[in-house]
Amino acid sequence: MTEAAPAAEHAEPTLRLRGVGRRFGGLLAVHGVDLDVVHGERRAILGPNGAGKTTLFNVICGDLPASSGSVELFGEDVTTTPARYRARLGLARTYQQSRLLNGLTVEDSIYLSIIGVEGGRLRPLPLPGRDRAARERAREAAGKVAISHKLREQVGSLSHGEHRQVAIAMALAAEPKALMLDEPASGLSRGERQLLTDLLLALDREITLILIEHDMDIALRVAERVTMMHDGRVIVEGTPSEIRANETVHDLYLGRGYRNE
């Protein structure tokens, strides 16, 4: 079981959504979502394809503006602020499809993610002290996701699972206060999924984790609380045990194998 999040020390949630909606023309993809995620919590957002999970992620991180409602991060209203500002507050995320530059090495990819969050600019001449520190952080992040042995290799030569590792390393290298992962286990082998699970379970408790994941073995092992979405709405919230036992969740998504005995 995962360790309980240190919520009592932090009255304000890391993330607070109130009435959040997102409309695409006549399609209401996310409707009236209220959500509180406290500091250090491990939260899974689950649901069938088309439930609105990734759209909600995009609204939270600022890739899409909310059509209605409010988004608060770390006690600050960020409803109308751009994604880069939310990143500098301490929010990092990965995407369903890894957004990597195949011609860069693993180390350079992680290094550039650090410079980007810190507001750095591409420079013809390096600043030795700053660059040295950023390079060290990049190598440390690679070690956390077991990709250190690939630091000098180009991203384009890596496997799909290794792309996932690099993307998570890039997010961790920014030293986030909250980490959002969108289907991190998608396309991974059984061994890579176990590596991912171990990584998430070992994540620093000071980092709040929010993930979308279709692999229930990973999601219900890592999460402390689960938010279930359907047709753009939150329909159930609870612990993994409560989610497994919920008849509505069973009928919509989980299947017989996830019922409590």
Structure summarized in a few sentences:
The protein is an alpha/beta fold and 261 residues long. Helix content is 35%, strand content 23%. The protein has helices spanning 53-61, 83-89, 106-117, 128-144, 160-173, 190-201, 216-222, 240-245, 247-254, and strands spanning 15-24, 27-37, 42-46, 68-73, 76-77, 91-93, 178-182, 208-212, 225-230, 233-238.
What does this 3D model show about the protein?
By secondary structure, the chain is an alpha/beta fold. 35% of the residues lie in helices and 23% in strands. It is built from 9 helices and 10 strands. The chain has helices at 53-61, 83-89, 106-117, 128-144, 160-173, 190-201, 216-222, 240-245, 247-254, and strands at residues 15-24, 27-37, 42-46, 68-73, 76-77, 91-93, 178-182, 208-212, 225-230, 233-238. Strand 4 and strand 5 (76-77) form a beta hairpin. Helix 3 packs across helix 4 and helix 3 (106-117) packs parallel to helix 5 (160-173).
* Contiguous runs where pLDDT drops below 50 for at least 5 residues: 3-10, 120-125
Order of helices and strands: EEEHEEHEHHHEHEHEEHH
Helix count equals 9
Overall form: globular
Q: Into which percent range does the helicity of residues fall?
A: 25-40%
Strand share of the residues?
A: 15-25%
